[in-house]
Amino acid sequence: MKKVLPALLVCFMIFPAFILPTNAAKWRVNNTGIEASFTTVQQAANSVSVLPGDTLYLEGSMTSYGSLNLAKRLVIIGPGYFLGQNPATQASLAPATIDYLTFSAGSKGSQVTGVTVASYTSVQDSAIYLIRNNLANVGVGALSSDNYFAQNYMYALSISGSSGNRIVNNLVTKSDNCPNGACFYMSNNSSAIVRNNIFKGCQVINGCVYENNIATGTAALGNNVFTATISTVNNNVGASSQYGSGNGNKQDIDMSLVFANTGSDDGRYQLLPGSPASGAGTNGVDCGIFGGATSYVLSGVPNLPSVWYMNISGSTVTVKAVSH
Question: Is 228 within 8 Å of 205 (Cβ atoms)?
């Protein structure tokens, strides 16, 4: 009889040496009817058996794992997103979805990767790592600092009174006109390094080193406003006059000459050969999410070998894996 295992689980069975603390426990979460340690993410986080520093593996499912109010330091790993749109991602194409995600007091140092958050992410503790996720609105509060958000596909990001953040290689998609709110907003007393992102709407920044970004908003659509306070803004590419033309910035660039504009929801933002954003960043790196030291990874597949093909026929098991 054939035995079918979740592709994410097979990956962990074959490659157990994922870069995690060796003394931390690893727990499976699955709500598809396949036996696992837990069926909801809150149940797993609340368990007295799950200790700070442990890892929760959310396996692919078409059913949400519910909301999570996290009050302990955990590592949470899902399979990625847009898995059917890009090649060699996962054998199972289902994402791992959380409805609402809150990092409450006690969650300092937590890491989440490869997860889809359908509604809202609230960051209320510090040193939170959001890497390679599909996120809706993200809000960072004044009690939080020193967070790291990288390689995410997100709708909008708001930072209120939070300092020491790093915002790198994210695609931020909110493109409403400016009276309806910014895709990236920072209040006074906030600070961040903002590098190699793509912003599709209005921006208000404060206390930033801001470089190698691309803004696609135009005056015609009313989503081109860019306001910077106490910030250095250099080597960015704008579809309008957001950044001006000084300090290595480029303005009024035709975006049809910048991006591939074909393929998956995230792959379409790869640069065309000869793109005006190629080599336009600081020290000659490409602007946008595929440039710099932490290049965006298609589908947000976690940083461990992924089983993207699996066939079990009798006693013959064929597995194909790729490292992301």
Answer: yes
Host H or E run for residue 195: strand 192-195
Cβ count near 53 (within 10 Å): 16
Render pLDDT for 244-273 as a digit per residue (tens, 0 to 9).
Answer: 999 999 999 999 999 999 999 999 999 999
Q: 186 to each of 109, 165, 202, 274, how far by Cα in Å?
A: 22, 11, 12, 33
Instruction: List C-alpha distances in Å: 31 to 41, 78, 100.
Output: 10, 13, 17
User: 98 by DSSP, 3-state: which?
Assistant: strand
Amino acid at 313: S
**What is the C-alpha to C-alpha distance for residues 291 and 285, in angstroms, rounded to an integer?**
6
Low-confidence ranges of the chain (pLDDT < 70): 1-22, 304-324
Query: For residue 45, how many C-alpha atoms fall within 13 Å in the half-sphere facing its CB?
Result: 25
- The upper half-sphere exposure of residue 146, i.e. CA atoms within 13 Å in the direction of its Cβ, equals 6
- pTM check: above 0.70: yes
**Residues 214 and 195: beta-carbon distance below 8 Å:** no
CA angle centred on 167, ends 164 and 173, rounded to 5°: 140
Q: How far apart are CA 274 and CA 259, in angstroms?
A: 10
DSSP string of 45-85?
A: HH-TTS-TT-EEEE---SS----EEE-S--EEE---SSTTT
- Taking the C-alpha atoms of residue 80 and residue 187, their distance in angstroms, rounded to an integer, is 31
Alpha-carbon gap, residue 235 to 286, rounded angstroms: 10
SS3 category, 197: coil
